């Protein structure tokens, strides 16, 4: 049996490495040699730290601490060093080795080379960023011309032209939002999305967004309950993006003539925002994946609405950067409620 297990380990495409609790390598399969460049004779008996870049040395004690507390480490993406000093992207799955008495006596590690995957993701993100930048400038100019023509048409009281240009302005606004989402997605995945926090009135921001929503979605009834003087410390532009996305989704995914209920209340030192609709609702299985990148729910009615499945992903990630999280309550054909909370700052 031991011979069979050894053959399986040696024939694996993944690097399989064992080490003791002091980080000393005790076993090393053929794929580990191919991936890292060290032979068994060169690496067994030495510290696993030879494979870890200096700026990531803190990962090792953190991993051991997790394992000692009974946790596994699954698909942890990081960088490691080869014998030649080359940095490679790897995905690590790490498990404790436990003796019959239940004590942890070592650590087993499976390392998979994901360099090509990461390179592909980087190329994709670069492409998205370049295309988005190239589209953003002419679209901004186009919208300015549409708004200028719209102003002139209103002055002439040309109702037909006003109606057509209103629709054109609305579509360019939607396209601008999509492009901004793609740019933010690219920044987020490159680790370049940062927060520019300041104290501001969430109530004032909400008032602006709700006013825009009433103008752009006259086919819905907007019920708005604002908090009094709700000041928060956050990135105003990104929180605006979160609110606009959540309210916009409620409008997009609910029938005309229904009510969108927007609340902003203060509870226990936090301001709680929520938006509820009377739309299609979301099945439990879809709720589990709703905030994944590019995920769209399986309901055919929702597929009729244009979108790329990145809006809610960005909402979740922006709130995560703020130390908050997005919550959803929904039933199919009964509508949905999305909510999040942020700490209140002292009144100004």
Summarize the structure in words.
- With 348 residues, the protein is an alpha+beta fold.
- It folds into three domains: 2-113, 2-Layer Sandwich (Beta-Lactamase); 118-189, Helix Hairpins (Orthogonal Bundle); 198-343, Heat Shock Protein 90 (2-Layer Sandwich).
- Helices cover 44% and strands 24% of the residues.
- It has eleven helices and twelve strands.
- It has helices at residues 2-11, 30-36, 40-43, 59-68, 115-155, 159-189, 202-216, 236-252, 284-287, 300-303, 311-321; strands spanning 15-19, 25-28, 73-81, 87-98, 104-113, 198-201, 221-225, 231-234, 259-267, 270-276, 327-331, 335-343.
- Strand 1 (15-19) and strand 2 (25-28) form a beta hairpin.
- It is elongated.
- It starts with a helix and ends in a 5-residue tail after the last strand.
- The mean pLDDT is 86.
How do the helices and strands line up, and which of them pair or pack?
Blueprint: H1 2-11, E1 15-19, E2 25-28, H2 30-36, H3 40-43, H4 59-68, E3 73-81, E4 87-98, E5 104-113, H5 115-155, H6 159-189, E6 198-201, H7 202-216, E7 221-225, E8 231-234, H8 236-252, E9 259-267, E10 270-276, H9 284-287, H10 300-303, H11 311-321, E11 327-331, E12 335-343
Parallel strand pairs: 7-9
Antiparallel strand pairs: 1-2, 1-5, 3-4, 4-5, 6-8, 9-10, 10-12, 11-12
Main features:
3 domains; 348 residues; Heat Shock Protein 90; Helix Hairpins; Beta-Lactamase; single chain; alpha+beta
Taking the alpha carbons of the first and last residues, their distance comes to: 72 Å
The secondary structure category is alpha+beta
Output the CATH homologous superfamily of the largest domain. Answer: Histidine kinase-like ATPase, C-terminal domain
The global form is: elongated
What is the helix content? 40-55%
Number of strands: 12
* Beta-strand percent range: 15-25%
Can you tell me the CATH class of the largest domain? Alpha Beta
Tally of domains: 3
Instruction: Report Rg.
Output: 26 Å
Fill in the CATH topology of the largest domain: Heat Shock Protein 90
Low-confidence stretches: none
Strand order in the largest sheet:
2-1-5-4-3
Total of helices: 11
Arithmetic mean pLDDT: 86
